Amino acid sequence: MPVNAALQVEPLQLSLNAFPFNGEGCGYCPVPETISDTGKAGRRSRPVQESEHRPTPQKKYHLTRLRTYNNVKAFVRRPDGTLIEPTVRVGMKPGLSFATPMGDGPVHGANNVYVVEQSVTENRLLVRTAQWITMHHSCGWGHDAKFDSTRTTPQTLGFIPLEVHIDKLWDTNFHASVTSGEQLLVTVLLYGKPVAGAQLTLTTEQGWSKKINTNENGTASLQMIRDYYPSSWDRFRRGYRGKFLLTAEYDAEQAGEYNNKPYEQISYIASLPWKYSPSKQDYSSYRYGLLIAALTMTVSGIGIYAYRERRKKPYKRISFDE
């Protein structure tokens, strides 16, 4: 069951950059700090994104607006299974940071980041979870870790209230693998166990949205939309990365007390932002289009040349015998 719409609760979200705010929170908003698609002035800019092949010694993330400053905790599950608890920065610009030692070590691979916030409002315990998965990797560290599936497969944490798990995010060479048109297998976990009836919402940065409920196994299949259509073929970029947000919501009829405040129901909401690239079919058709265009031009040129040759009249010498 989804969170009561009357509460107008926005999901708590993690981002590389500070989110803009409005009166009720930002929802899924573009971030203000951007870089140009082409590096040229006057072109459309997009949010800065994290690269799995550009490691940094420290990761720094921003949060959307917190509802409480006293009941917020952060957790990072490293690829080797160890757990750290970074301090959440509260105030006007909430966020967190944690060290990511360079080299082939315990943090080489997929690091799961969670921020959990709990508060009671209108006799309801509201539990918001923000997720982020960062791939800490450099090709210079080697690819031996690819033989360990835990390095490229995000691992879950059993004590996280509500968690969104996507079946496959990277290939064995640490490359992001979600593409447009692909079917995503998503599992929603409530304290580590699959939960049926949770509402999943997928929203792309282009504004497309799809809702679906998890089945009895706590899973749902969502197809990524194909929405990358440059104005011309010469602007098509195989390395384009679109952004999307997965949000899971679930209500539980359970009474209790939290921080001396009674509640009659628990509302869980979790968010996981991710990225996707054009499918192989998209840029294959682009190559085929260029090939067909080149062949068409070649055949047309040959046809024009042959036509002109046929129009030429051979020179004939005429002599008169007087």
Describe the structure.
This protein has 322 residues and is mainly β. The protein contains two helices and 19 strands. The chain has helices at residues 149-152, 280-311, and strands at residues 14-15, 34-36, 45-47, 58-63, 72-77, 83-84, 95-99, 109-121, 124-136, 162-166, 183-190, 193-194, 199-204, 209-213, 219-223, 242-252, 256-258, 261-263, 265-276. It has an eight-stranded mixed beta sheet. Strands 10, 11, 12 and 15 form a four-stranded antiparallel beta sheet that branches. The protein has a three-stranded antiparallel beta sheet with strand order 1-4-7, with no helix packed on it. A hairpin with a 2-residue loop joins strand 17 (256-258) and strand 18 (261-263). The chain is elongated. The model is unreliable at 20-47 (pLDDT under 50).
Task: Provide the fold topology.
Blueprint: E1 14-15, E2 34-36, E3 45-47, E4 58-63, E5 72-77, E6 83-84, E7 95-99, E8 109-121, E9 124-136, H1 149-152, E10 162-166, E11 183-190, E12 193-194, E13 199-204, E14 209-213, E15 219-223, E16 242-252, E17 256-258, E18 261-263, E19 265-276, H2 280-311
Parallel strand pairs: 9-19
Antiparallel strand pairs: 1-4, 2-3, 4-7, 5-6, 5-8, 8-9, 10-11, 11-12, 11-15, 13-14, 13-16, 16-19, 17-18
What value does the average pLDDT take?
A: 79
The tally of beta strands, per DSSP, is: 19
Overall number of domains: 1
Helix proportion:
10-25%
List SSEs in N-to-C order: EEEEEEEEEHEEEEEEEEEEH
